[in-house]
Amino acid sequence: MSENCNQNCNTYSHDRDFSSFSAKPHELSNIKKVVGVVSGKGGVGKSLVTSMLAVTMNRRGYKTAILDADITGPSIPKAFGVKGKAVGNELGLFPMKSKTGIDIMSINLLLDNDTDPVVWRGPIIANTVKQFWTDVIWSDVDFLFIDMPPGTGDVPLTVFQSIAVDGIVIVTSPQELVSMIVSKAVKMAEMMNIPIIGLIENMSYFKCTDCNKEYKIFGESHIEEIAEKHNIDVLAKLPIDPKVSAACDKGKIEFFDGNWLDNIAKYLVMENGGKKMKIAVASENGMVAEHFGHCEGFYIFDVEGNQIVSSKSIPNPGHKPGFLPNFLNDMGVNVIISGGMGGGAIDIFNEKGIEVITGAAGNAQVAAEEYLRGNLKSTASVCHEHQHHSECGH
Ligand SMILES: Nc1ncnc2c1ncn2[C@@H]1O[C@H](COP(=O)(O)OP(=O)(O)OP(=O)(O)O)[C@@H](O)[C@H]1O
Predict the structure, then answer these.
(1) What is the rounded CA–CA span in Å between residue 175 and residue 347?
(2) Domain identity same for 255 and 323
(3) Which of 360, 358, 380, 356 is nearest to 369 (CA)?
(4) Position 2 in a domain
(5) What is the pLDDT of residues 10-64, one digit of tens each?
């Protein structure tokens, strides 16, 4: 890790230097950035945030992976619906792939029975995590997210000593204890000289779907004051969302709908120097089309380093159920922007790991540029057949 960095620099751009860590990654691994997700105490949604971060970056076209270091409470495979046993050969152990291509390694993918409890002592747990780093072949990973063991005790400390983590995200919930818990996590990061990317407050509020009112179920948040005290950023506030917990329970976290992690995604993209991606905009006379399925054509914008470097316009090849999302996926599109879109098309895009932005309007290129600046948020609006006479691309 760079000598120039201290915990206050709030950046995690480091040259990969593994010399000061006790464990080296597998020689066939190629990992660009390692982001640890920590919590001062259990049950605040650390695993959920880890999963959503990996999904969010995967949707942006990055190769992402999750190392489930929460050995005694491994919940990542279940959230992704990944079952079975990870395989290995004489070279090493291979992670298992989620439906949208996220690499996952977890103790639950090695146990005979995933309901077997892991009743190991701290050093064995820490050693297992170390092996997930040294013995697993993580090939061509842009972002490896580590779901850290909960708390700030011996096990996470040993893991941090072993693995070259580029930065950590601290997950909290809005409770009285938070100030103390965050302080502990910050101190741990300081001791290890690991940059803190920022704070994520989970279960921040609950939004009533009938009246749209927000209720602070766990009380008022003090996250801003806490963040200011430690000179770190609040990157996201996640609501309590029954759809999210249902998605976890059904193994479908990859298909969550929500843009709560856009800020942190933007930050990670910038820190990675931007990247190549393709944005498609459903268009009508150069403007964002109101209805995806029956749009005139698509602008395809090639992006490098967060800038549009080229664009082309292609006619709509025809509207058949399910056809267009697959067509755009085959073109390597990572993001689709439209006015409205049918639920069926949104589901297929989500399954393919393509980010969907609906509710956009105005000039097509400006919409793509606004997306890149982080200013274009999806309204998540779904067209229904009766509203648009089946024109939204079901
Ligand atoms: N914002 C949320 N909305 C709805 N459900 C949530 C939310 N956050 C977490 N949950 C649910 O709460 C449970 C605990 O979350 P999770 O496993 O992510 O916590 P954790 O901090 O990793 O726990 P531990 O530290 O014990 O491993 C899960 O069932 C998850 O689906």
Answers:
(1) 35
(2) no
(3) 360
(4) no
(5) 444 444 444 555 678 999 999 999 999 998 777 789 999 999 999 999 888 889 9
Asked whether residue 291 falls in the same domain as residue 240, the answer is no
Q: In this structure, are 208 and 298 located in the same domain?
A: no
Q: Give pLDDT, residue 176.
A: 62
Expressed in angstroms and rounded, the spacing between residue 45 Cα and the centre of ligand 1 is 3
Tell me the one-letter amino acid at 207: K
Q: Is 187 in contact with 179 (CB distance < 8 Å)? A: no
Answer yes or no: is 246 within a domain.
yes
Q: Cβ–Cβ contacts within 10 Å for residue 372, how many?
A: 19
- In this structure, what CATH number is given to the domain that contains residue 348? 3.30.420.130
- Average the pLDDT over each of 71-80, 107-116, 371-380 and give the range with the smallest value: 107-116
Exposure pattern of 110-129 as b/e (b: 16+ CB <10 Å)?
A: beeebeeeeeeeeeebbbbb
pLDDT given for residue 151 in this prediction: 75
Structure-token match 């009938």, residue found: 210
Taking the centre of ligand 1 as the mean of its atom positions, its distance from the CA of residue 48, in whole angstroms, is 6
Q: Domain boundary residue among 219, 236, 271?
A: 271
Same domain, 146 and 242: yes
Q: Are residues 265 and 283 located together in one domain of the fold?
A: no
Alpha-carbon distance 175 to 279, whole Å?
40
Q: Is the CB of 358 under 6 A from ligand 1?
A: no
Q: Is 336 helix (H, G, I), strand (E, B) or coil?
A: strand
Q: Among 216, 201, 191, 68, which Cα is nearest to 128's?
A: 68
Q: How many residues does the chain have?
A: 394
Measured in Å, residue 147 CA sits from the centre of ligand 1 at 12
Residue 143 CA to residue 32 CA, distance in Å, equals 6
Domain that holds residue 331: 277-388
Co-location of 181 and 297 in the same domain: no
What is the pLDDT confidence band of residue 193, given thresholds at 50, 70 and 90? confident
Indicate the top mutation candidate among 48, 146, 206, 216 to test ligand 1's pocket, ranked by most ligand atoms within 8 A of CB.
48
Burial class (CB in 10 A: 0-12, 13-18, 19+), 315: exposed
